[in-house]
Amino acid sequence: MSTATPVSSSFPDRQASFDEMITEATNQLRGDEVLLANLSGERTDFIRLNNNDVRQAGSVDQQRLSLDLIEGQRHVGGAINLTGDRAFDRARVTALLAQLREQRRLVPEDPYLLYNTEPTSTAMVKSGELPTPESALAEIRRAGRGRDLVGIYASGDSFSGFANSLGQRNWFQSSTFNLDWSFYLHTDKATKNLYAGFGWHDDAFARKVDWSNRQLEALGRKPLVLGPGDYRTYLAPRALEELLSLLSYYGAFGRRAHETKQTPLLRMVVGEASLSSQVNISERTADGVAANFEAAGFLRPDAVPLVIGGALADTLVSPRSAQEFGVATNGAEGGEYPQSIDLAPGTIPADGIAEALGTGLLVGNLWYTNFSDLSACRTTGMTRFATYWMDDGEIVAPVDVLRFDDTVFNMLGAGLVGLTDEAELLLDSGTYGERSTSSARLPGAVLENLRFVL
What we know:
seven-stranded mixed sheet
């Protein structure tokens, strides 16, 4: 496939324009005011497909500027979308500053306000060798020939900037692609797959397409209806991502949730439980597509260990939590959940999953996940898309939808047989407002037993 590196030549201009804009805004400050500024943007090409035909195609080029105007412990924030017309945008920044200054008089002091006062400037560019939209579409449609291929392809550049009136300047940009697709069979029957990364490789894509075709063939067989019970199970990386996302969202790795005892890993916090010694979880910013700085100007380390050998290690600490609980921040955003979560691989060969599972369930995706008992870290949810019964390493039949209800202390603890020796890069395909920069690197997991209740 012919490829190009679509890091736009205008990006250096955008970085310089951002710098100049905040320098000019700094000159408008009064007294002891401090200004924090964050820029987020993208240049993305996207293609939506249905029945292996293009249903929508286009591009997005956008930038959003957020300002926080501080005086003492009082501060007010606001945001505008930038047009690219420098004179017009600078006039809007001036107007926004005046508005924030007026609003700030009415707000109380913020006891947990904390921002970086030791300027450290950085610039990082992760360039990707991405296919042109035309060549990507040709490969995708070739793979879907004779199939009802449904999906979305998005590729291009995302960028983030931080600047403050103290002289700090940070810039981050990355080039990625993300193909989220299904081969649809009929009614609610479909196989789902994802191919994403910094560079497109035909052989890697071909392997994924081959696996989807094998699943689609098996999906045409008469489905097997299983009753409630405990079944040996393989959770593919996408299924594991659903579980870890649920944990993360509810404060499994955040300092505030740990301090207030609202974390789903409460039993680990109080020393009553642990995960398998095979489990090593970290926030690996260096390997992700999220910026290596946060909104108050604090830099993120390359990695923050969260679970080591099944035991809790560090937590993600936002500036506000750092101020409230008297600890150092490590650059976490306000939600204190991982943006580049990493579960270290294990020892099961990635090409030997069927043999490692033997007889049991192969689960590619989960959805509707939630906690049935948060304090016990008991989760529930449904299997989604193609789930199969395997016997002696071979697909026997698809399995009708199942509901599981089990604790993470079983799934990633006593019940964990092992993890695959390769981790897959999973980019969040969300595009609400803008392309998500969340990512995960996860292996698959073989479980001795997973409890299904319906």
